[in-house]
Amino acid sequence: MSNEYCVDQEDVVEVVEGEVVKVSTLSFLGDVDKDRGVVVSVDSGCVGCSIAGKILVVERFRGSTVGTYVMYSLCRRGLTPKAILCSELDPVVVAGAALCGIPIIYGIPDKVLKQMESGDKVRIVPKGGKVCIVLEKVH
Amino acid sequence: MYLTKWEEKALQGEFGEAVQLAMSVIVKVCKALKGVRLIEITHAHVSGISYFNIGEEGLQLLEDIVNKNAKVCVYTTANPASIAIVEEFKARYSNEIVVKQLRILELLVTMGIDGRSFTCTPYKLRMPKLGEHLAWAESSAVIYANSILGARTNREGGITALMAAITGRTCFSGMHLDEERSPTEVIEVGFPVDSVALASALGLYIGRITRGIPYIKMKLKIRSNLLNVALKSMLSSIASTSSLSLALIENISPEAGKADVKSLDRISIDYREVRDLIESRCAGSLLLGCPHVDAEEIKELLSEVEPKLRSYGIERIYIAVPISEVENMQKFYLPKEVRGIEIIYLPGVCPIVSDLRTTGIGIISTPHGKAFHYLPRISGVQACLTNIV
């Protein structure tokens, strides 16, 4: 199965492809092991998942402004996700993503995020003022 | 989003890598906040100065930004550091922590941040005018600037405030807009606020119950020399238990007079609802100066607490002050002890942003709601809200 969803967004310039790691809630401070790039919070729904080089899908962000620094530390160690998909943006995460050059695609409806599961394949494609997310289910 | 020619050029890297990075963060965060343009600022205030808060990652980021030749382009102040650099406490921390804390301060000064700041009361160094646009982090300073001075600033993150300092701009959204500064509910305080501790307890309570921007009607029965300490304590307490950046106080906030409150919901606060937060005698260490107090305020606070120290069981007093006040403190002949009780001044630092578990201070008495709220959460020590002043 494969389906596509597009949002109006201009700042993504390159095609990004990867495997989904999906978490229900995430703070970069406290919920991610900054030395390994692994999700450690039990209520994330994906404890033990590595975010490095993945497409990180987050239903809801929470937590401290120190999260920006943790993201910076992750990118210094090459442990950041390739892209972040979410519905509501969190300024703390946006600042971290801007420092690291990680594309964030936002404004994705909850029902679209809900279709994505860890292990699925996603292709993020810029299309003239829009960004389209092509989801390929593996299950 | 609209960008000026200068902003476009900055984003394309014409003014160097540091400005490009800073502009890219500001623009992306502004898009996230649904801002339509940026606004030039006159003063930035940066938080995230304590090594305990920002850790190795924060230090690394500051090193990298300085390596890119970053310089602030507007007047910029910074928050207090951790107490690890104060003479009395140095031995309680590893040398690594002390060295790294000092390195953070050095990097900030290299970028052009005022080395005489390191305070949570940047308005003491440069008082913003009514309507001035700022990019301040530090929630207590933000709510003071908006509510008491009528200046305009959102609650910036430590990083975005630094990026705003480097670009001289922030997002034109939230508190910068007229329409976001109107009260949404009236809070009627049904008792006279007659102490700093009561102002704190009230602030903590208001922060918990308020859902929008409160218009506060209250009677302050505090002598004029301590009025500002009480207001700072109340507002910083509100900002501890909420994410508020503005509270309009009747007859005090410059924008309160023009607010139309007739149609707003009213909430009454009874003394019984806040009194349970306050204790009298609770711990031997007394912390004053949250937010930081100046030399004159210290004099007033000490004259108020002096007769009560013994009966409240106080054995030592810690007072957090801006570095810039050290000269004034000498001018005011501030004592090193009072009635045989030692006073330790903490210039340019803050106990709340420090890990206090190694200091041997078990419990802290304080009349300040922000310290009471955060000490157990951040510093790892117990705290009680004392009505000593």
* Domain count of chain A: 1
Q: Which strand order spans the largest sheet of chain B, edge to edge or round the barrel?
A: 10-16-15-11-12-14-13
End-to-end Cα distance of chain A, whole Å, is: 9 Å
Strand count, sense and barrel status of the largest sheet of chain A are: 7 strands, mixed
Q: Please tell me the overall pLDDT of chain A.
A: 90
Greatest chain-chain contact: A-B, 21 and 24 residues
CATH architectural type of chain A? 3-Layer(bba) Sandwich
- Order of adjacent strands in the largest pleated sheet of chain A: 1-9-8-2-5-6-7
Q: Per the principal axes of the C-alpha atoms, what is the gross shape of chain A? A: globular
Can you tell me the overall shape of chain B? globular
How large is the count of helical segments of chain B? 13
Detail the poorly predicted runs of chain A.
Answer: none
| Helix content range of chain B | 25-40%
Structure description:
The complex is a heterodimer of chains A (139) and B (389). Chain A has 139 residues and is an alpha/beta fold. In chain A, helix 2 links the parallel strand 5 and strand 6. Chain A has a single domain, classed as Phosphohistidine domain (Glucose Oxidase, domain 1, 3-Layer(bba) Sandwich), CATH 3.50.30.10. Chain A starts with a strand and ends with a strand. Chain B contains 13 helices and 16 strands. Chain B folds into three domains: 174 residues, Aconitase, domain 3 (2-Layer Sandwich), CATH 3.30.499.10; 94 residues, no CATH class; 109 residues, Rossmann fold (3-Layer(aba) Sandwich), CATH 3.40.50.
